[in-house]
Amino acid sequence: MSASPISIRGVSKVFRTDERELAALDGIDFEIPSGQFTSLLGPSGCGKSTLLNAVAGFALPTSGSIVANGTEVTGPGPGRGMVFQEYALFPWMTVEQNVAFGLEIKGAGKGAIEDTVRQLLGMLSLSDFRKRYPKDLSGGMRQRVAIARVLALDSPIMLMDEPFGALDALTRRNLQDELLRIWAELKKTIIFVTHSIEEAIYLADRIVVMTYRPGTVKRDLMVELPRPRDPSAPEFNALKRELGQLVMEEQQRHHTDELRLAAID
Ligand SMILES: Nc1ncnc2c1ncn2[C@@H]1O[C@H](COP(=O)(O)OP(=O)(O)OP(=O)(O)O)[C@@H](O)[C@H]1O
Questions:
Q1: Which protein residues are within 6 Å of ligand 1, measured from CB?
Q2: Where is the signal peptide (predicted)?
C-alpha cells in the first residue's frame, strides 16, 4: 500500500437547492498516512459528514479529488468501509448473518465465511449473541455488530461517522477502548468523525478541526499523548481547553449564521 492511502486534494462541495446554494466544503487539502487514526472535529454543520461521505464515495465533491488506496474515488468501493451512528443492520438477520452478509455478496466460500465470522464475533465479544436479532441487542452490542460487519470486508480504510454518539458514557468508553485495540491489531487507517473533543483526544493520532460553513481546515494537529490516555491528566485537559476554544469560535459562527438566516426568513 502507498504511504498515503487517502489524499484529499482541493475538495469543495456545494449543495444546490431551488432556493439557494450552500457551500459545505471549501478547498480541503490533506493526506492521511497508512495506519493513522485521524479524527474530524467540529460543531454541527461544518461539513464533517459531507467530507466523510466524499471519501466513502457516497456523494462526490463538486471540485477537487480524493484518492483512496491509489485510485480516484468515483463511488463506494470495498477498500473503504463505513460505520454509521445508526447501526445500519438488517433487522431480519441474526448477528452472525449480518456479519456474514458482505462476505456472501463477495462470493467467499462457506468455510472462509464461517472462519471469519467466528473470529470477528470473538474479537468483538459477540460469540454468545450470534443467534440474536438486532432488536434483542443493546445499542452498544448493535454497534459492535456494525463494526464486525465492516471488518469482515477487510477494508484497509475504516470511515466512522459519530459511531458512538448515541451510546451512554460507559458503553462509549468501552467501545472506544475496543476500537483502539482493533485498530492496533489490524492496522487500519481510520477517519473518525465526532463533535466530542474528549473523544477525539482519547482516540486519535491526529485531529483535524474544521470551520463552520464552508468547512475548511482550521487546525491540523498531532496528539502526542501516550496511550492509554488519561482524560484526567493535566496534558489531556490542556489540549481539551485549546481545542474547546477553537470549536467554540466555530459554534459561535454557526449561531450568528442561524440568527442571520432566521432574519432573512
Ligand atoms: N444533501 C444536502 N443538501 C443540502 N444541504 C446539505 C446536504 N447535506 C448536508 N447539507 C448541509 O451541509 C452542511 C454540512 O453538513 P454536514 O452534515 O456535513 O455537517 P456535520 O459537520 O457533519 O454536522 P453534524 O455533526 O450535525 O452531522 C450543513 O449546513 C448541512 O445542512
A1: 15, 22, 24, 42, 44-50, 195, 213
A2: none
If you measure from the C-alpha of residue 15 to the centroid of ligand 1, how many angstroms do you get, rounded to a whole number? Answer: 9
**Mutational pocket test of ligand 1: of 19, 20, 48, the residue with most ligand atoms within 8 Å of the beta carbon:** 48
CATH architecture for the domain at 6-79+155-264: 3-Layer(aba) Sandwich (3.40)
What are the residue ranges spanned by the domains of the chain?
6-79+155-264
8 Å CB contact between 87 and 146: yes
Which tens digit of pLDDT belongs to each residue from 152-211? 999 999 999 999 998 899 999 999 999 999 999 999 999 999 999 999 999 999 999 999
Rounded to two decimals, what is the model's pTM? 0.93
At residue 212, the 3 state secondary structure works out as: coil
Residue 109 is placed in which grid cell? 466460500
Nearest-atom number in ligand 1 for the CA of 51 is: 18
Handedness of CA 77, 78, 82, 88 (dihedral sign): positive
